[in-house]
Amino acid sequence: MARNRRLQSPARSLANRLLRRFGNLPLVQRIQNYVFMHVHLFVASLGRICRTPIASAMTVLVIAIALTLPASFHTLVDNLGRAAGNLEATNHISIFLKPDAVNEVGSRIARKLAEHPQVKEARLVTKEEGLQEFRRYSGFGEALRLLDFNPLPAVVAVTPKDSLTRPEDVDRLIEELKGIDQADLVQMDSDWMHKLAAILSIARRTVGMLDLLLALAVLLIVSNTIRLELHAREEEIAITKLMGATDGFVRRPFLYTGFWYGLGGGLLAWILMSILILLLDGPVSRLAELYGGGFELEFLDGGKSLPLILAAAGLGIAGAWGVVDYHLRRMAPT
Predict the structure, then answer these.
(1) CB within 8 Å of 33: residues ≥ 6 apart
(2) What pTM does this model have?
């Protein structure tokens, strides 16, 4: 302790002299010096990482793998949501009007329902259109020609909004449609809709938990890497502290190092995700064609890639901040 006090006294004296010398600089020059110092540390931290390419590459690769897992699940759930949206386009509520209701009545009901906040589209299928479709697909075309009247009612086909994300709203809409005076039957199979919505909800919640766990993994990876570098530079940090350096000055290069690790891991995770989607896009498209539809996997665009990369860089800074702050508290004199 006595030796530390002898070293600290001249260090404090030197710090005071430097403060008196540079404290009188003009504001613009002080800002230039501050920016230059940050740019220097920003580049120097990258150079320090590049001097250990194998160890740094392994750290970046582990971070990228940890980030690729939740990002891939997010992409999977998003694409499932898009596929469900395609199903939603064919998800109609059929309102069978009473047999004596004419097409004009159905047209008025369709126009009124089109203005409903929960209705995406309302379309009238006239009696004549219904008879033509029934003849075409039922196989009873010849038998229907023997009839001298049209037995089919007019139908209003209603497409609800957000039926796969809020199925309870669709149930309330169905009950409301049953109250229409000219409605004879309101039909929709909503069981599959509830099941699919529950599956998507479970998937999103599972992805959210994975996000938290793997974000913690990234924090631990960066923290451990910075901790090893702190031990390697412990004497340098101690001398710098004795020279009067603040905690912020000591912390700054390690924060930039954490930033570079996180940024590199985020960029590599984006590359791995793009390769994964590219490999799966062909088989998924062929599977969709077998089911009579067209569907392609959605690649990560800028709106989704940028948050991934920024989150990775932020996790790198947070991991470095935590371990450096703990190390500096341990070094503080008691």
Answers:
(1) 22, 25
(2) 0.61
Alpha carbons 59 and 315: distance in angstroms, whole number: 14
CATH architecture of the domain with range 92-187:
2-Layer Sandwich (3.30)
For 229-240, write each residue's pLDDT tens digit: 888 888 888 887
| Domain ranges, ordered by start, for the chain | 35-85+197-331, 92-187
pLDDT digits (tens, 9 = 90+) for 176-213: 888 888 788 887 755 666 677 777 778 888 888 888 88
Q: In what order do the strands lie in the sheet with 183-187?
A: 119-125, 155-160, 93-97, 183-187
Which residues have C-beta within 8 Å of that of residue 195, sequence separation ≥ 6?
none
Quick check: helix, strand or coil at residue 140?
coil
Give the C-alpha separation, 206 to 201, whole Å.
9
User: Cα separations (Å) of 147 from 73, 103, 219, 288?
Assistant: 57, 20, 76, 41
